[in-house]
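Recall the central idea of this unit: under ordinary conditions, the amino acid sequence of a chain determines the structure it adopts. In this exercise we apply that idea directly, starting from the sequence alone.
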Amino acid sequence: MAKHQFQTEANQILNLMIHSLYSNKEIFLRELVSNASDALDKLNLLVLTDDKYKDVVFAPRIDIVVNKEAKTLTIKDSGIGMNEQDLMDNLGTIAKSGTKAFLENLTGDQKEDSNLIGQFGVGFYACFMVADKVEVTTKKAGEDQAFLWTSTGDGSFELENTTQDGHGTTIVMHLKDDESEFLETYRVESIIQKYSNHIPFAIFMDKENFVPAVKDDDDKELEPSRTDIVNEQINKASALWTIPKKDITKDEYKDFYSSIAHSSEEPLSWIHNKAEGAVEYTTLFYIPSKAPMDLFRVDYKTGIKLYINRVFITDDEKELMPTYLRFLRGVIDSKDLPLNVSREILQSNPTMDKIKKTSVKKVLSELAKMAKKDKEKYNTFYGEFGNVLKEGLYNDYDNREKILELMQFNTINSQETVMIEDFVKNIDDDKKEIYYITGKASLSMLKSSPALERFKAKGLDVLVLNEEVDTIIFPMVTEYKDYKLVAVADAKFEESEEEKKAEEEVAKTYEGLAKELKDALGDSVKSVETTSDLVDSPVKLKEDKEDQAYMMAQMMKQMGQDSDMPEPAPILQINPNHELLKKLKDSVDQNLVNDAAHVLLDQAKLFDGKELDDTADFISRLNRIISKAL
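Accordingly, the structure predicted from this sequence is:
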């Protein structure tokens, strides 16, 4: 017998399970049955596709055994089983990306942390919520040696050789004294029907069956009543997605979601579709009500299971759906793919490509219906997944217009978010330009940006995009239908010859001040120039998009590699009609001009959501200017 320590992360999970205040402990059964179903799925595929397993008998079933005297609850499956290395990998460590995200979300508050279990089942370890000792006996299909894994959840486990007839895994849970409810067959059956009714394999359990007394016509007892023990199937074992939609209740849809998403949260919505014709397939997609915890991780766990004619193929293929729909949970089942399909074939198979493209259009179409018919539900969806969906604008050109129509936009003229179809109703039909501003500032700060002053003065509405992802995505989105999307910095307005001449005259009178400001700021700015765009603000920043450094920075940002790139120096634009600039132009106090130059630049940076290079210096200069004004 060999004793081993759990990996640190696994120990954290165990401690949380054992000391949890979590009330919905029944999910441990959902997790173990789901694992058993996965083990059967894997063996089914290998028996059908791998010569190494051609002699293995596939007789799928899951058994649940209640022993009130011994206070044990047993889950047994005839699936793929595990060898020693599998046990070390699966029951000694935490390898799933979702579990890493689960651990990162722990706050240290026992009550608050325990509620996370409901959103993330953490698989096998959930059994320690109800058991103070767990024994796992298992033998891998095609191998001779069986193993016994034992742990009391104390930070270690023991592993030894044993014997077992046939392949598969048996988990025996020695229940805690206060968990006797899980020794009642009616309670176990109700949990199975709630969470695992549509696991595609039969689940059996011994149940008490009352047989009434046999009596003759004179009511004389011929045989006394008795209670027989009958081994019965307690789930439907039918793949839910193969059942006609009209025959499935809302509760059945919700229960199936809990089993495939490992979540106690109800789904926000679901999309069940059966396609017939040149390519036959069925899809059942769920939209969660809460974002999975690993949603923004590179190693996120995909939520789509692929079946071929109801034979499970994979749940680890991120190419099944585009990354911007990675929040989906559900099933794709097709008869038109080979059982021995590989990852490479999946990525290039025309049938899979058609299923994927059609499924994406279906999901986007259903989201569009939700946005129009159920505003409250769509607002919930968008709050959780809007920024993920937005990624599709960058990498799904074919559906860009549909995705754009699903976006909720803030604007300078509206307190509520608007959809782009409504926004364009108030756009100049001759110019057909949709103006937008991006920035990392807060929404209120960005709405107050000096760059928007000329638009406000002209009564033009502007989309305000203050999410960091917007700065990367929207420069790539150039049109919507026959409208052009134009960044506010690139907007061009017609000017008369008289207006142009007047601006040139004003610029000449400010050449001296512009030079003084540039000298004071040095390489912090590329140049200083006057502008007619400003109304109320004294200054704003402008990027020189013809600058090679700017173009390189943008390219690196779009590749996600801009972290170490120094930002190219901006152009500082000044408002010649602002009282502050008029006074500076006439000032002979060079120290005042020097301090004002830096304070004005820092002011413009703050409006752009940038951090100041030297906050202490900014405060010192500002205090000197105030002192002179008093």
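The chain is about 35% helix and 20% strand.
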